Amino acid sequence: MDHHQQTIISAPSLKQFCEEVFAQRIPREEAARVADNLVEADLLGFSSHGVCKVSDYLQRLDKGLIENRTELKKVTESSTASVLDASNGWGQYASVEAMEKAKQYGTGVVGVRNSNHFGITSYYTMMAARKGCIGFASTNASGLMVPFGSREPSLGTNPISIAVPAGEGRDPIVLDMSTGNTARGKITLAKKTGDAIPEDWAVTKDGKRTSDPAEALEGYLLPMGPKGSGLAIMVDILSGVLTGALFGSGVPRMYEDPEPQYLGHLFGAIDVKAFMEESAFYEKIMERVAQTVESEPMGGFDRVYLPGEREQEKRRAQLEEGICLPHEIFAELKHMGEVHQVDISQFVKSDW
Q1: 351 lies in some domain
Q2: Of 42, 26, 89, 117, nearest to 333 (Cα)?
Q3: CATH number reported for the structural domain that contains residue 345 in this entry
């Protein structure tokens, strides 16, 4: 069978299936949030953080590396900031609570400690942007990336996202970036689908470049040059050190280490109304948007995009046409469904 064969499934059906599978093991409310985050990642084209994570998460649950219920505890609270302890619960659940709390302050910051993988970072900044706030979110991750010029890994790909509201009926402007040349999930996905990877993604354990995803997974990720390395260190300090979570080389690896990760996240919300009239802000934003999208493209480019614009286009197309899942990922989901007595075939739209 051609390993690039795909199955098309509608986003609501895929979400419903994933929610049903998770709900066999964790509370329904938490299952819904995890499922929504994973499907949103696939919709936006971040397939390395999409439903390919379902089996990874459930394996961690099977091994007792993540709790089957998230008990959030307040560690500290001031008038505009707080820290929550996720007690080794589900990253997506803790993060939604934290971002909602940050927005309640008006302009506030909330840290989360002792958490787990939280899916795509822009999921939380978009929450803020939809409520008229500029959203900030960051997380640290397993220490699988080398700092620029080093052979020893002490960094995760430590992503950062900022989302800016652009007014009623318009997509927010969204930056969502990893600080590595790629997310490790993309290498994991390439291994699952049998694809080679670009040579600037990772190095082997001996520090040599490789296009073999299996070798890369045993080695280390490369940062996005010195700037990516510097940003990753700062994100680790904000998300890990500041929140009281594990950080740097102290973060256990998601797949190889049989212990909880105790990750840290940081969420911020800036209420636009605290700075100026919303209408005035959106007027200026439209002017700023025009300076980018209406600018003359250079040779080889059809047009100039805003951060997050292409992802929103992909999202709209896939909401209409369905999400294309590689055969291997669909097979993995089917198996997870069988294990949890949820039949995926009732959710599938059509085959390619």
Answers
A1: yes
A2: 42
A3: 1.10.1530.10
Q: Please state, in angstroms and rounded to a whole number, the distance separating the CA atoms of residues 237 and 46.
A: 25
Q: List per-residue pLDDT tens for the chain, 352 residues long.
A: 345 678 999 999 999 999 999 999 999 999 999 999 999 999 999 998 999 999 999 999 999 999 999 999 999 999 999 999 999 999 999 999 999 999 999 999 999 999 999 999 999 999 999 999 999 999 999 989 999 999 899 999 999 999 999 999 999 999 999 999 988 888 988 998 899 999 999 999 988 999 999 999 999 999 999 999 999 999 999 999 999 999 999 999 888 889 999 999 999 999 999 999 999 999 999 999 999 999 999 999 999 999 999 999 999 999 999 999 999 999 999 999 999 999 998 887 554 4
Determine whether 4 is an active site residue. Answer: no
Domain assignment present for residue 42? The answer is: yes
Distance CA 3, CA 113 (A): 39
The one catalytic residue in 3, 117, 335, 340 is 117
